[in-house]
Amino acid sequence: MNAIKITRTLDTSGKCCPMPMIETNMAIKALVSGDVLEIIATDPGTRNDIPSWCRRTGNTLLDSREDGKVYRYYVSKN
Amino acid sequence: MKSMAIVVRDDSYDKILTPLAFAYLQAAEGVEVNMLFVNWAVRALTAAGAGAMKIQGDHADQDAWVREQVAKAGLPVEIYDIIKALKATGKVNLYACSLAAAIFDVNEENLIPEAEGIIGASWFLNEKAAPADHYQYF
């Protein structure tokens, strides 16, 4: 993970669908191509939602991690 | 997906959350969402109606608890505030069914400014629902 330079962190901890995805969409719009968004979530739905969203939007899921009930995603903006 | 059409019939607080959440999700991703409110749900497009929505039936006694859970989830608790959030995306159009408006006392005077207007179902079904990439009914 040290190789990934995080541009911005979005913490959606405690929030549930639809808010993590809505806030992720909003956050990515504020970034420029190549920027990396770190998304922290506790909604287990994001385990499917974030990879699926990346495939649809052309953004790249660089890595994801699970630490107990906390999920971290690292997305490079297209 | 480029466009989605949703017809909303149920007006209880808990049951209207799902179509609003789905609309919010898709709109956030840039999808055009057109929503037609029919039957009692048309009252969601009035300030008084949106504010009066409660959980009905078997779960009526859990209204306060559900609202607390909605707040924890991060959504606005009030239906009108959710509607405002939908409109803020710039991708959601809200229509009142003219039949429902006539039956359930919704008119141009009490319609919330976020709504596009009172329209005929034929227009919505042919111009918005039929061409949509996806259609849902709640």
Structure description:
With 78 residues, chain A is α+β, with helices and mostly antiparallel strands. Chain A has a single domain (8-76), classed as Translation Initiation Factor IF3, CATH 3.30.110.40. Chain A has helices at 19-29, 46-57; strands spanning 8-11, 36-41, 60-67, 70-76. In chain A, a hairpin with a 2-residue loop joins strand 3 and strand 4 (70-76). The radius of gyration of chain A is 11 Å and the shape is globular. In chain A, 31% of the residues are buried. In chain B, 42% of the residues lie in helices and 18% in strands. Chain B is of the alpha/beta class. In chain B, helix 1 links the parallel strand 1 and strand 2 (32-37). Classes of the chains: A alpha+beta (78), B alpha/beta (138). The interface between A and B is medium-sized, with 15 and 11 residues.
How many runs of DSSP E, i.e. beta strands of chain B?
A: 5
Elements of chain A, N to C (H/E): EHEHEE
> What is the subunit organization of this protein?
heterodimer
Annotated CATH architecture of chain A = 2-Layer Sandwich
Query: Biggest sheet of chain A, in brief?
Result: 4 strands, mixed
The level-1 CATH class of chain A = Alpha Beta
Helix content of chain B: 40-55%
> What radius of gyration of chain B results from the CA coordinates?
14 Å
